[in-house]
Structures are given as structure tokens and as C-alpha cells.
Amino acid sequence: MAxxxxxxxxxxxxxxxxxxxxVLQHLHxxxxxDAVLLVGDVSHDPPWAERATSHDAQRASFAGVLHHIEAAxxxxxxxVPGNHDPRDIPCPxxxxxRLQTLDFVRxxxxxxxxxxxxxxxxxxxxxxxxxxxxxxxxxLLCHCPPHDTPLxxxxxxxxxxxxxxxxxxxxxxxxxxxxxHIHESAGFHLLGDCLCVNVGALGEPFGRACVGRxxxxxxxxxxxxxxxxxxxLPSGATRQATHRVLPC
Length: 248
Description:
Layout: E1 4-10, H1 17-29, E2 35-38, H2 55-73, E3 78-79, E4 99-102, E5 105-110, H3 126-130, E6 139-142, H4 164-171, E7 175-179, E8 187-191, E9 194-198, E10 210-218, E11 224-232, E12 237-245
Parallel strand pairs: 1-2, 2-3, 5-6, 6-7, 7-9
Antiparallel strand pairs: 1-10, 4-5, 8-9, 10-11, 11-12
């Protein structure tokens, strides 16, 4: 059994294949990955008036992005749908409400976004998310960031729009939380014993070619060491964070 798991993490793609190709080239050139994770908002953005009714087109767009990533990296991505995506993406990689074990790492997904409602396909209220019984896991794969952190702050200090329920799950979690949704707020933030990471966005607004890597190391004492990296392309500028979780 391996002692290191290497994950590529891609933010809100919004079917921007031009930026996605830059990201995939970067991931392909680096150390071999064990899996690729997507934090949601994968499919194209339909016209505003059709945002809640074009589910078939968005499912097809979502499938096209997944196929493109698998063809480039040889890995079928794991993902949660975002608020721009239909909730019911019928692919085995959909981790929304599901626990997936990759070697020694357990990943659980929470898709969609709230509490604001704007008529997108996958939106929820806080009580729905607060009621989720999150199983013991090492990585929380979410679309929405936790509330009142640097990861949910709108441009020009226009407030925080993340989820209080996601924040509560993060505070109860020992490990890493991966998210997106708020395109302009990529970065790291520690909540209790949970390192939260907004990986940024390829789609507009504030879109750019950016990508995350997460290496999870199993240590001799049974603890886990998480090494997270965010890279802006094509400059290659990186930010890094390390988090260690002691064995229970």
C-alpha cells in the first residue's frame, strides 16, 4: 500500500477548454497523479434566461469536460456538481453525498451552493446541508466555501457569501476541505483542524489558468500530512500550505 497519494485539483472550469488545456499540460508534466478532483461548475454557462432549464445541454457539456480530462491524463475525474451544474450527473465519479476511498484516503462530497438562490440548477438552503451526516473522512470535496473566511469573500470587500453549514462541517473535520465557487478568492484558510483550500476558477468572472495539487502522506505514527499547492499559469507562481493531522 502506498504512503503518498497525489491529487490534481481543478476549480470551476465552466467549459473553458482553452484554460483547461493549459492546466492539463501542467499536471501532465508534473509527478504522476493518482486521481483528479473537480470542485464543481464544470459545464458551460447557458444564457441567463435558460440557466434553470437547459439541463440536457449542461449534462452534455459536463460529460465533454470529463472526457477531455480523461483523454489528457488517463484518469476519470472525481467531482461534485456546482450550482451551475445539474444535480444529477449520472457518472460514477460523482461524489455528491458519497464516500470514496482512494488507497488510504477517504473523500466525501457536498455539491451545489447556497444559501443565496439565483435560479441555478443546484442550490440549497443551510438546513439541508447542516443535516448531512458527514462520515469520517480525510478530504471534504465541496463546491461552496465556508462562510466568513478569505475563501468566500467577494471582490472589493462586498461581503462573505459562503455557507455557515459548510463552515460547521469544516470545524468538525480533521483534514482538508477543497472548494471553489467564489472565483476571486483562491487561497488557504485554517478552521480548527481543517485546512480549507479554494482552488480558484478557470471560468469567468475572474477566471484564469490555475490549478491545485494536494499530496497526502501517511506518516509512521499513523498521522496524515497534507501538502497543498496552488499554481497560477503560465507564470508558474505558487502558494503552498502544509497541514498535519495527528492520529486519533
